[in-house]
Amino acid sequence: MSMGSTLLFTAFSLLAVGPRQIICIGEDLLNSKTLLGLLGGFSHMFQKFERHEIDVDKALGKWHQVYKAAVNFDQFQSNMYCHVAYVQRNKIMGAGGLSIVEAFRVNSREGAVKTYKRDLSRTAPGEYWMFTEDYFYPRQFFIFDVGPVINGSYEYLIATDANRISLTIFARDPVMFYKLYDQQVQEKLAKGGFGGYSFWNRPENVYQGFDCVYPDEKEIFIRRALPITDAQPQSQILPFLRQASHLLSSSA
Questions:
Q1: Residue 163 forms beta bridges with which residues?
Q2: C-alpha span between 57 and 31 (Å, rounded)
Q3: Which residue segments constitute the domains of the chain, with CATH numbers given?
Q4: pLDDT one-digit tens code per residue, 93-128
Q5: 196 burial class (0-12, 13-18, 19+ CB within 10 angstroms)?
Q6: Measured between alpha carbons, how far is 81 from 77 in angstroms, rounded to an integer?
Q7: Chain centroid, CA 229 distance in Å
Q8: What was the pLDDT predicted at 223?
Q9: Which helix (H) or strand (E) holds 12?
Q10: Which positions make up the signal peptide (predicted)?
């Protein structure tokens, strides 16, 4: 049974109990109104939404993830801090194919740096199959919305799957995003079936503070290509990265 089917079955099962209230310590948490709300939340999973075709050139370059789904099935991405991503063309993935090379710190803004890569193959306007290193099968990466174009680039990008279980929101500049676009994005997400009774895809902040230090594309490439482990102290890693970066620049 798929994740979506399981969630819907659970909602119907709870609703079948009727208007009885489930007694919990302090107050009655589940009543018929709440259960109907949950059912409405589950129903959003099976309602189609408009996919937004993107201009690849306007999506290239540097991004920061500012929101993710509250329930994240990628466990190692559950506690991301200071996320950065670089979107690149990938001809191997076919016409309109893309790669997203990412880095973030785990558990705290000073935690270990993790790298991650997604390869996207376009299957329809605004729809991609996403191939990652930790899954042996592709997943959906559908464009729910994109922000305005400033200086030839989208200001933000919202991606999910057909059932709206996952959620990824990329912004060019986190500070400007929260100042200019956050309110309208939250309103669009609420109308589109994110958050509220749909608790699993509620937008949850990814830390992007002024104290974040972001690796560039070159450093991410080096980290992915060379045997750097989390157990190594930063005092060992940083000189190693500088030397590798210098060699890479010299050979370019």
A1: none
A2: 50
A3: 8-46 (no CATH), 56-205 (2.40.128.20)
A4: 999 999 999 999 998 998 989 999 999 999 999 999
A5: middle
A6: 9
A7: 24
A8: 87
A9: helix 3-16
A10: 1-24
